[in-house]
Amino acid sequence: MNKLQEQAAKLKPTPASTMLHALWPLAVAIAIGLFMVLVVGRSVDPYKGNILINCGIAIILAVSLTVVNGFTGQFSMGHAGFMAVGGYTAAVIVYYSTMKIWGDADFHGGALSYTGAGSAEGAWFGWGDVLFVFGCLLAGTLAAIAGYLVGLPSLRLRGDYLAIVTLGFGEIVRVILQGSKDQIQPWKASEVADTPWYQLPLKLGGPKGFNLMPTYTTLFWVYLAVVLTLIIIYRLKVSSSGRAFLSIREDEVASQAMGVDITKYKVRAFVLSSFFAGVAGALFAMYNGTINAAELGFQKSFDIIIMVVLGGMGSISGAAIAAVILTILPEILRSPPHVWPWGLGLLAVMTGIQAFRRNWNTPSLIVVAVATTLLEIGRDVCLANSINPADYRLVLYALLLILMMILRPDGLFGVNEIWNLVRFGRPKQRPAPQLGEKP
């Protein structure tokens, strides 16, 4: 018995290794966030910086929805509702707390949160940053609570029935927020000081939205959240809980027969997904300085669902890449470039992947070549007849989505991750054992 105890003690990790294993994702996220704000942020113009921030927020939304729609195979259509809960929560916390503490609605953060409005306090962080981080965490927490309240009674449903319930939740959130009382304006700080705390969350601006907030969201905070989201959800996917999620997606009856508590795991996935959606909503609100529930209705939920489906149901890297593509694509189509260079690049990438995988799909290559040619001809015809292709950018956007789904009906990566797709040759197959031989 003593020998067994000694062996068990040797296998037990030390406190230092446990701490390192727990904190390295945070260290990596901080390093990437600093790189984005200090290197990338200083080398791009504000327009490209805006696109990078929107890409980061879209990644968080798409990857978080993958936990529900991809891992457990459910169909949630209310993700924008959780985003709205998080965005308005952070707005109330930061805006009204700033007015109560400092007597104004100005920026009180440090250099890492400085967006050009007001003046930065201190070298890196200010007390406003603490308030902002607290607001983001509380936004995620309240969104997770909302996810629990919605998920517990409704996740016993499946398919279209669950979609209707979550869509109804999103619309209820939108209508309630648009029916709220008027926001207390920044020049009425004395009124905020005299108003009890429990009344302030009711003053959300109504149909005009919540406006004139101090902005704290920068590339640092967005990509800090992006990296943490990707690491946490990937660790979840490869954990025992993640395998339970995937088993529910494949076959609920078989999963339940093996002892998996289906309802518990569905609710757990829903709560985690809602938390990250709330954080994304907080980052969105505190970047724009305004948030309006009218912009976070079912159309926004559909946009996030498209990212998940295009990336592949269950693929974290696919959802992230699809979120970037669908965020950048409308901006590229504002001034449509020549199509052929992009088409040739896509052909080269597809050919290279198929060569590595030794899985040739000639029809898909032909479709890309024909579609690229037709788009190039259409662009030239429009310009020759004084028609601006940018006026039809939403039509082009829809056509490109259709083309991508035709080429990849299972999404970009299906249920796999990007690093699982490229295989340098296939493993050699051992010959079948002959009669009398040991296998």
Task: Tell me about this structure.
This protein has 439 residues and is mainly α. The chain contains 16 helices and no strands.
List keywords for this structure.
mainly alpha, globular, 439 residues, disordered C terminus
Largest sheet features? none
Rg value: 25 Å
What are the low-pLDDT stretches, counting only 5+ consecutive residues below 50? 423-432, 434-439
Average predicted confidence as pLDDT: 81
Distance between the first and last residues' Cα: 38 Å
- Structural class by secondary-structure content: mainly alpha
Question: Topology, pairings included?
Answer:
Blueprint: H1 2-11, H2 15-43, H3 46-71, H4 79-102, H5 127-154, H6 159-178, H7 189-194, H8 219-237, H9 240-250, H10 252-257, H11 262-288, H12 298-311, H13 316-332, H14 339-357, H15 362-384, H16 393-407
Helix pairs in contact: 2-8, 3-8, 3-11, 3-12, 3-13, 4-5, 4-6, 4-11, 5-11, 8-11, 9-11, 12-13, 14-15
